[in-house]
Amino acid sequence: LSKVEEEIGTLRQVLVAKERHCGELKRKLGLTPLDGLKQNLSKSWHDVQVSNAYVKTSEKLGEWNEKVTQSDFYKKTQETLSQAGQKTSAALSNVGSVISRKLGDMSSYSIRHSISMPAMRNSATFKSFEDRVGTIKNRVVGSRENSTDGLHSPPGAGEKPPQDNAPF
After folding, report:
1. Rounded to 5°, angle at Cα 132 from 110 and 127
2. C-alpha 35, offset from chain centre
3. What are the pLDDT digits (tens) for 20-65?
4. CB-based burial label for 154 (10 Å; 0-12, 13-18, 19+)
5. Which of 11, 14, 90, 128 pairs with 162 at a CA distance of 20 to 30 A?
6. What residue ranges carry the coiled-coil annotation (predicted)?
């Protein structure tokens, strides 16, 4: 028993020396642990791909794919989705063109100049924008005339009209 244990110890020492030597050779050759991992993964993936289960599964999935893609339902769905994509693309392109044109029309004026210009404030685009903002504000805040919640304005709030310094 002691002789066998001694041989095991010797074999462990030899194995450690060989592993150290192997590491030195890999280092000298420029091989990193990552390279070894890549090589192991590649070999493992190759082993999976040539396995009987993988080959049979791939064949079966190929058959199912062929059946599905040849079905009328698949072809109609593909055609419908393709048309929907084309129409959506065209609509988005039109929206982008309109926005670009509107911004182009407005960009001939500087921002500071356009805010104070009556022509800008009286334009259909500006009026439409102003109306929408007002509508949204009324929905969120509510109008003062329609207020039925019993809340009152603070004292002195109605004495002077608020000063409008906003650019819009």
Report:
1. 45
2. 33
3. 999 899 889 888 888 888 889 999 999 999 999 999 999 999 999 9
4. exposed
5. 128
6. none
